[in-house]
Amino acid sequence: MGACSIYLTLSLLFSFSISSSSSSFPDQDTFRRCLSLRAPLSTNLSQLLHLPGTPSYNYLLNSSIQNLRFTSPSTPKPLLLLAPADALQVQASVLCCRTHGLPLRVRSGGHDYEGLSYRSEKPTDFALLDLAKLRSISVDIERSSAWVDTGATLGELYYRIAEQSSTHGFPAGNCPTVATGGHISGGGLGPLWRKHGLAADNVLDAKLVDAKGRILDRAAMGENLFWAIRGGGGASFGIIISWKVKLVPVPPTLTAFTIKRAPEQGAIELVSKWQTIAHDLHEDLFLKVNIVSVEGEERKAEAVFNSLFLGDCDRLLQYMERSFPELEMEEKDCREMSWINSTLYYAGLSHGEPLESLLDRGLQPKEFNKAKCDYVMKPIPTSAWEAIWERVAEEGAGSLYMDPCGGKMSEILESEVPYPHRKGNIFFVQYLSTWEDSGIGVENEHLKWTGRVFDFMAPYVSSNPRAAYVNYRDLDLGKNKGISTTYSEARVWGEKYFKGNFKRLAIVKGEVDPENFFSNEQSIPPLLDGDDLRAWS
Ligand SMILES: Cc1cc2nc3c(=O)[nH]c(=O)nc-3n(C[C@H](O)[C@H](O)[C@H](O)COP(=O)(O)OP(=O)(O)OC[C@H]3O[C@@H](n4cnc5c(N)ncnc54)[C@H](O)[C@@H]3O)c2cc1C
Ligand SMILES: *[C@@H]1O[C@H](CO)[C@@H](O)[C@H](O)[C@H]1NC(C)=O
Ligand SMILES: *[C@@H]1O[C@H](CO)[C@@H](O)[C@H](O)[C@H]1NC(C)=O
Ligand SMILES: *[C@@H]1O[C@H](CO)[C@@H](O)[C@H](O)[C@H]1NC(C)=O
User: Fold this and answer.
1) Do 89 and 146 share a domain, yes or no?
2) Ranges for the FAD-binding PCMH-type domain (predicted)?
């Protein structure tokens, strides 16, 4: 009842302030005129600009909202939507928004857990720049590299690489519909990270439109800005148009397995052991574990061990026998496959689905979700695992997804790119709650679940700061959910995401976007020349 009335008041407030402030925006014709002057002659304006109340606006806005929490009528909507088809149209869009003092949100694949790519937490005027049309990919096998536009998804990139070679791959996330725009600018972790690092560790060059509307490549933007966009989180430094990525070698045959264990099969002891060895295994061997609830009459949870090994079944069996015999992995568990098929397998498609599924931008079912995460630096006591088990089993509200660190990740310096969570971490854990029912009561239950698990985990995870991963964006990490305007406000979440790199990010931001044109609730604040650095430390 209480929650319901708050909800009503808020939605009234939102619609009031949107309609009242939109009158301050220069009329749509002025904006349209600006675009027609700035954009290349060949531009079809009705494909670039979409206004509220039109079918194309509704369709486009909705097209890649991945978290259904932010489709509600009370979610602040953009004043206008821009769907550029090339870099010059992005440039024109940026320049016209700047001229009209209209803040810009940029969206590539729309997977941001807090929806910051297409909504604002507080009602303000903004335009939405949607990059879904920017998705060309050109693969150069001879030079082991590829240029990929930021609106292209990981699935599209994987598919295009595999079209040309079965022994090249790219180390990035599991979910094919995540786009390279947000993913790589926030880091990008996946089953190859112990061997090859993050997606952001494998970027050779990039093109971006900066706050002055210039199109810059690595040489033109300079090494500071190029450093910042490789893990500093999208949306603070400009609109990234495309990445040049380094392809990595993969063997023709990889081996995957999925082994499920219930508590009566020793699941809790297995997870206890896993956490002491997974980060130390050979870097060819990625072995993750999820703790998920099992549907059924009785509420239960089980451990799902998932591996990807860069080699054949025989060698994998030897490694497993030596390092983790308790799991009792057997030859029949092996699934030998090509790298590209392993990307399907990790996307949950292991029943002979065609490779073209990787190109399906609607593959990921849309759902309501809330995620939080932690980095773990020392093994968690068995008694705590038992308690975690109960929380997953009895409430059935969410799951734990754990990725082992180590290998290449421990060799890369914390300051190499903005993503700082390197040596010393044994695994990374995501607490993810998903649901399908839009009731506010249901939402509260799920938000509470993630909050409770997060609180429970506090003694066992990294501290000072309690580290977090910017690609698993979480607005609870800040003091208030509004835009952080000062460094000390932003530091609260900024040092969790970036540790010592946060200050350097703010300095770069001050150099390239001193007026803070590219901003959202969790964008990097600019540190300007006149600011007292000592007050910052
Ligand atoms: C189902 C699901 C699975 C996931 N799996 C993984 C995983 O395996 N590994 C992993 O590391 N992460 C994973 N993530 C997190 C994912 O990497 C991040 O949410 C990522 O930022 C999404 O990128 P996007 O372009 O799809 O999202 P968007 O919502 O479009 O963008 C995310 C952020 O980047 C900004 N941005 C987007 N494009 C640009 C651009 N071109 N220039 C500048 N800024 C830009 C946006 O403004 C926003 O702040 C997953 C998320 C979901 C929902
Ligand atoms: C411009 O785009 C609209 C909408 O897609 C289309 O109907 C129209 O024919 C296009 N105009 C030209 C000149 O191509
Ligand atoms: C938005 O997308 C969702 C999920 O794909 C769909 O169920 C819904 O009907 C769409 N809404 C609009 C207004 O298009
Ligand atoms: C890969 O997957 C495709 C489609 O599911 C299948 O036809 C093919 O046999 C698989 N190949 C390998 C080497 O795994």
Assistant:
1) no
2) 74-250
